[in-house]
Design a protein that fits this description.
mainly alpha, 58% helix, two-stranded parallel ribbon
């Protein structure tokens, strides 16, 4: 069969009646154009005109303009420009009816009939089995939230937050209540972080709008961070985990750390040395959380002002004023500075070790446009389940299941885990699961290995 190239016509399709404003829609041709995968690949946002096309279920969409107003962030959708985004699209969107109104106005064509449904470098059998697994997960109700579970999560973090103030108010600021108050404040803040993470993935309520509203309450009002900033960064991480220049979690490379063999050898051959990377496994423990505190504090204001997120900015400022008014009258300004910033440093330490134990020891490279399953499994690993591990990590010890099904409520990860492991066994993919201590130690081992690769390339490359 002859391949119909760009510009040739396919079956007629009526222009959609979206009811949107003229600015939000554009006319759809009475005929859809047919494209080849090569047509798609060249529209990756980097060529002439910087057009961004992607494929979802064989339909071709031009997201060049829409990416700037994409509710999940502008960059996350751009990371799939020139690629098949079918499985990523399904993974991120539970409410398909909500997003269809956006897709209709972006449709420009479809793949030609003799074009395969999968890109040549994708594992067809693996994706077919994963999509069948996805249907099984939906039929089992594993994407439905348990409201009692999340209510108790929310309640326990509110109790911890209140306790951090009440201890100091009732017992004063002698050493023991001061340290107990810091402990309660730190635990409350990290647990708020895990809970807002659930809300950001729309896994607490079935309707996205309720997740977004409560996320603003938790992260903006109770934590002092903008929800839009978190979602902008975190959605990119999930779209392309451990892919340099697409996963913001790798932005510590190369300024502070050298990550992964490929990037470390490349850095060494370029004779670049921002830090003594061969010692990074020693300074990670102190420097990583210490650097994260000012990075968060500065970047949130930069983000909110640059993108004109005035509500986020107002709520951030309100949080800081509220915390000052609550604690300074009880302990004075100097003691409050110690109380607050020591808590933030401890929270940062907790966050760094939990968030990086699943990723730094795994494959780190540039985007190779692998299939959805391979992309997630090569970049993630699990930590053994226990009541403590579940609570301590916000259930991110089930990182594999979380990345394959980002909208799945965390209380269902353990139910999906055997199904995912069976899929991995069938296709010969390693399903890594470790103890919590081993996962922490592997961060340092990985950094040591990366530092040695950098040093070898720096000296002899």
């Amino acid at each position: 069969m002859k391949i119909l190239h760009r510009g040739e016509l396919a079956k007629p399709e009526m222009a959609p009646q979206t009811g949107s404003t003229e600015k939000e829609t554009r006319p759809v041709s009475a005929f859809l154009q047919l494209f080849t995968w090569e047509d798609i690949r060249i529209h990756n946002g980097r060529g002439q005109g910087q057009e961004q096309w992607l494929v979802i279920d064989r339909k071709v969409y031009d997201v060049s303009e829409f990416s700037k107003r994409h509710p999940g962030g502008s960059r996350v959708i751009s990371h799939y420009a020139g690629q098949d985004a079918t499985d990523a699209f399904v993974a991120f969107h539970n409410d398909k009816s909500l997003v269809k109104k956006y897709l209709k106005s972006l449709l420009i064509g479809e793949l030609a009939p003799d074009q395969p449904s999968f890109e040549s470098n994708k594992k067809k059998s693996l994706l077919e089995d994963f999509r069948e697994l996805r249907c099984t997960v939906e039929k089992m109700g594993l994407l439905r939230p348990n409201y009692i579970f999340f209510f108790l999560i929310f309640l326990h973090l509110l109790v911890l937050d209140a306790a951090s103030w009440l201890v100091v108010w009732y017992f004063g600021i002698s050493l023991v209540p001061f340290l107990v108050g810091i402990a309660f404040f730190t635990i409350a803040q990290i647990q708020m972080g895990w809970f807002q993470h659930d809300l950001g993935h729309c896994s607490v309520f079935r309707k996205p709008k309720w997740n977004r509203l409560l996320q603003i309450v938790v992260i903006n009002v109770l934590k002092g961070l903008p929800a839009s900033w978190w979602n902008h960064l975190h959605n990119q991480h999930h779209a392309k985990p451990n892919c340099f220049r697409k996963d913001p979690d790798l932005n510590m490379h190369p300024l502070l750390f050298s990550l992964g063999k490929t990037l470390s050898v490349e850095l060494g051959k370029q004779k670049k040395k921002f830090m003594p990377y061969n010692y990074q496994h020693k300074y990670f423990i102190l420097l990583a959380p210490l650097a994260l505190v000012p990075f968060f504090q500065l970047s949130i204001f930069y983000f909110a002002i640059k993108r004109k997120k005035w509500l986020d900015l107002l709520l951030i400022v309100s949080f800081n004023i509220r915390v000052c008014l609550m604690y300074i009258p009880l302990m004075g300004f100097n003691n409050f500075m110690v109380y607050y910033w020591l808590s933030r440093y401890l929270e940062s330490t907790w966050f760094i070790w939990v968030s990086q134990m699943n990723h730094i020891p795994m494959d780190i490279d540039y985007d190779k446009n692998k299939d959805w399953v391979s992309t997630q499994l090569h970049a993630t690993c699990n930590v053994k389940q226990s009541l403590f591990n579940d609570w301590f990590t916000g259930h991110l010890n089930f990182q594999i299941e979380h990345h394959l099904f980002p909208t799945m409520p965390r209380h269902n990860y353990w139910k999906a885990a055997p199904l995912v492991k069976a899929l991995c066994d069938k296709h010969g993919i390693e399903y890594k699961s470790k103890t919590l201590l081993t996962a922490f130690v592997d961060i340092l081992h990985s950094l040591k290995d990366s530092g040695e690769h950098w040093l070898e390339a720096y000296l002899h490359g």
